[in-house]
Amino acid sequence: MAAAAISLPRSPPLLQPTRRRPAPPACTHSERGVSFDPGSAFYRSDSAAGRDLAVLAATLHRCRGRPDPSAPFLCLDAMCGCGVRALRYLAQAGADFVWANDASEALRPVILANLARFERSSAEAEAGRRSWVVSHNDATRLLSERYLRREYFDVIDVDSFGGDAAYVRAALLALKIGGLLYLTSTDWRSARGYGSRSSLSSYGAYVRPMPYPNEVGLRMVLGGAAREASLLGFHITPIFSYFAYHGPIYRVMVQLCNGKDDGISNYGFICHCKSCGQSQTFGFDELGQISCGCTDRTDADSITVVGPLWTGPLHDASFLTEMLSLANEWGWACTIENGVTLEKLLGMMIEESDPRLPPGYIRLDEISRRAKVNSPPLGTLINSLRKEGFSACRSHIGANTIKTNCPIASCINVARDIRNLR
User: ∠ CA(156), CA(157), CA(163), 5° rounding?
Assistant: First the structure.
C-alpha cells in the first residue's frame, strides 16, 4: 500500500471555520508560551510533559525524518479535548495542517476559539489555505474514512481514556509510512494484572501481577501496536515510551515502517520467579520450556508469565538525543514544568535505551530485603554494577528502581559488598 501525500482535506461546509468569528475569550492557561482556554473540556496540566515530548518528536520528524521535507506536514489529533495539542502542533511543531477531532460537539466552541488563536502566515492567508479543521466523529470512524479517501498523515495523536484500543488499526492505516503514531492508555488495572480479560481483548496480551507493572503497561500498548502493524504488513519502531504517575498514563510514540520484520524477536513473553526474583524473556518457540534455574524442580506457583507483549527496547536513543538537543535549543530542557524537568526525563530515557537491558526493573528495597542489609544508595549501586561490567541505570518509570542486565543474585552480592557485610 503506497502512502501517497494528501491534499488539504475538504470538509463539509459545517466544518469550515466561519469568516467572521468573535474574539477568543481571555486565556486561562499556557504551555510553553502557547495560551489557550480549556473551557469545560477535561484538561490536566500534569500531562504537559507528554505534550512537550510529542511536539519535540513531531518537529524533528518534520525537519529530518520524511522522504520529502518540502511536502505539507499533516497532523491529526483524533481525541483533541480542548484543542491544546492541535494548537501546539500548529504553533510549535510547524504543522502545515492539523485535523482536530473530538466526539463531543459540546466542545466545538472551545476548540474553535483555541485554534483561532493560531495566526497563519500572510502567504497562507492570501492563498486561502486552511491551517486546521474541526470535526466531531468517533475516532475509529474518522481514521477509517481518511484511509479510504487515501488521506495520510505524518503524525497521528490519539489521547484516549481507558484501555480501548479499537482505533489502533485504523490509525496505522491512516498514517504515512515512516509517520509517527502517539498512543495512550490509562488502563492501570490491566497493566497491574487485575483486568486480564481487558488486556487480552484490547492488546492481545494476558497480564498478571508483576513487580514492575508500569513497564508492563507500556510494553502491553507497544505489543498491541506491533501486532496490528504486522497484520497490515508493517512493523513499528518505538521512538519513546513515557509513563506518568498521574492517572496513571501510559504513552508510547512509534514509527510505522514498511514491510514485516521477523515478527517475533521483540514480541514474546516475560517470566518472573517469585522465589529468586529473577525475570527472563521467552519467545514463542520456547513456550514449553518456561522455567527458572533457581531450583531443580519448578514450582508452578512461583512462576508468573505475561504476554505476548513488546520485549525490545522502549526507546530510540538517537532520536531521544536529538529531542534533548532541541529542548536545550528551545530553552525547555532545564525548566521545571508541573514538576517535570525534560533534561532529567530524557536523560533517563536515553540510558534506558541500552539494548543490553532486559524488560523490567528491580526495586531497591527488594534487593535490600533479599540481601538482608539496609538499602545502598541508588547511585552507588548503579556505579558498582557498571564497574562489574553490567549495564545499569535508573528507570523513569519507578522511583528507587534500577534497570540492569545483572542477575539479581549478583545484585544482592554487590549490595552486600557496598554495606561491607559479606
Answer: 120
| C-alpha cell, 365 | 528495597
Between CA 27 and CA 86 the distance in angstroms is: 16
Q: Measuring CA to CA, which residue among 176, 175, 152 is closest to residue 9?
A: 152
pLDDT given for residue 44 in this prediction: 87
Contacts of 107 (CB under 8 A, 6+ apart): 39, 40, 41, 81, 82
Furthest-apart CA pair in the chain: how many Å? 78
**Are 95 and 129 in contact, with CB atoms under 8 Å apart?**
no
Contact in structure between 379 and 421 (CB atoms under 8 Å): no
Nearest CA among 127, 115, 41, 122 for reference residue 82 = 41
pTM: 0.90
Q: Locate 12 and state its grid cell.
A: 463539509
Task: Write down the pLDDT at residue 125.
Answer: 55
* Blockwise average pLDDT, block size 10, the chain, 422 residues: 47 43 64 92 90 98 87 96 96 97 96 89 62 96 97 96 86 97 92 84 91 96 95 95 92 93 80 92 89 69 92 97 98 86 97 96 94 93 96 94 95 91 50
Closest alpha carbon to 314 in 265, 355, 262: 355
Q: How many CB atoms lie within 10 A of CB 209?
A: 14
- Tell me the C-alpha distance between 154 and 156, whole Å: 7
Contact 236, 245 (CB under 8 A): no
Residues 6+ apart with CB under 8 A from 415: 367, 368, 371, 373, 375, 376, 381
360 near 212, Cβ under 8 Å?
A: yes
Supply the pLDDT for residue 66: 84
pLDDT of residue 58: 98
| Gap between the Cα atoms of 324 and 57, Å rounded | 10
